[in-house]
Write a structure and sequence with these properties.
It contains nine helices and twelve strands. It is α/β, with parallel strands linked by helices and about 260 residues long. The strands form three sheets. It has a six-stranded mixed β-sheet, with helices on both faces. A four-stranded antiparallel β-sheet has the order 2-1-4-5, with helices on one face. It starts with 8 loop residues before the first strand and ends with a helix. It binds adenosine-5'-triphosphate and magnesium ion.
């Protein structure tokens, strides 16, 4: 990658409030191609809000969001600020595929249909082109034999792996994960952690919100600790987990990492 390639996603000084509640108070995050950035922090610190603002599911009031160097264009100001260009929103959103804690698979569709749905309906791709890709992705995440079953017939770990295959089927430039393992029992969690580690090893660009400090330590190039809507500390995982500088991060880690 050349030195002047812009980050896949860059967020500069982002501010977001819900009414009078300031949730993000000037947050900057940069994810270069092939890098994994993890967001950690207590409940309510603004991690999910940041991801939702990044892929334009939520409006923000101040600051910039750049996708591969292209700034989001806005109309209006402050509480009335909204993205100005719907085509740009669709382009960015389809390139930043999101994986949620609760999988969010369509209950009435088979797993294969779930994975094929967005490329066919949003991107307008030919189903005959999408289907082999979807099957290969389900194979890749270890559930190639589940193409024709419905989500309710699968374990949580299998459903989350299907959700990851669905995100990958959009061929996004980056994947955004919001607590992908939090709804899972420990042994099912490991199936999903393995898939995420494989994706990191392949050089996928990912931003991962997680409570799993071991996952963050293992896969991240950069870790960001959010506290009450601000970045309290950030750096390589060795530094954040090995030698946390701020008292708040030290407290957070001592409360979350098992002894
Ligand atoms: N739609 C909303 N309307 C009003 N307030 C909201 C909304 N979504 C989130 N908030 C508030 O914004 C703050 C940050 O929430 P957010 O979901 O981003 O936290 P989080 O860091 O992801 O927490 P958790 O670890 O529990 O998932 C919280 O105080 C929350 O109550
Ligand atoms: Mg959250």
């Amino acid at each position: 990658m050349s030195a002047n390639t812009p980050p896949v996603l860059e967020i500069r000084d982002l501010h977001k409030a819900y009414g009078s509640l300031e949730v993000l108070k000037g947050v900057s995050v940069s994810a270069n191609a092939g890098c994994v950035v993890s967001l950690i922090g207590s409940s309510g610190s603004g991690k999910s809000t940041l991801l939702r603002c990044a892929n334009l599911l939520e409006d923000s009031q101040q600051g910039e969001i750049l996708f591969s160097g292209e700034p989001v264009t806005w109309k209006g100001h402050a509480m009335n600020r909204h993205p100005a260009d719907h085509r740009q929103v669709t382009r960015i959103r389809t390139n930043l595929s999101m994986v949620f804690q609760q999988f969010n698979l369509w209950a009435h569709m088979t797993i294969l249909q779930n994975v094929m749905e967005a490329p066919v309906t949003v991107l307008g791709e030919d189903p005959s082109v999408v289907e082999p890709r979807a099957r290969a992705l389900l194979e890749k995440v270890g559930i190639g034999d589940k193409c024709d079953v419905f989500p309710a017939q699968m374990s949580g770990g299998q459903q989350q792996r299907a959700a990851i295959a669905r995100a990958l089927c959009m061929e996004p430039k980056a994947l955004l994960f919001d607590e992908p393992t939090s709804a899972l029992d420990p042994e099912l969690e490991q199936e999903v952690v393995k898939v995420i580690k494989d994706l990191a090893a392949e050089g996928r660009t990912m931003i991962i919100v997680t409570h799993d400090m071991r996952l963050a330590a293992d896969v991240s190039d950069h870790v960001i600790f959010l506290h009450q809507g601000k970045i309290e500390e950030e750096g390589p995982p060795e530094d954040l987990f090995g030698a946390p500088k701020t008292e708040r991060l030290q407290q957070f880690l001592s409360a979350t990492v098992p002894a």
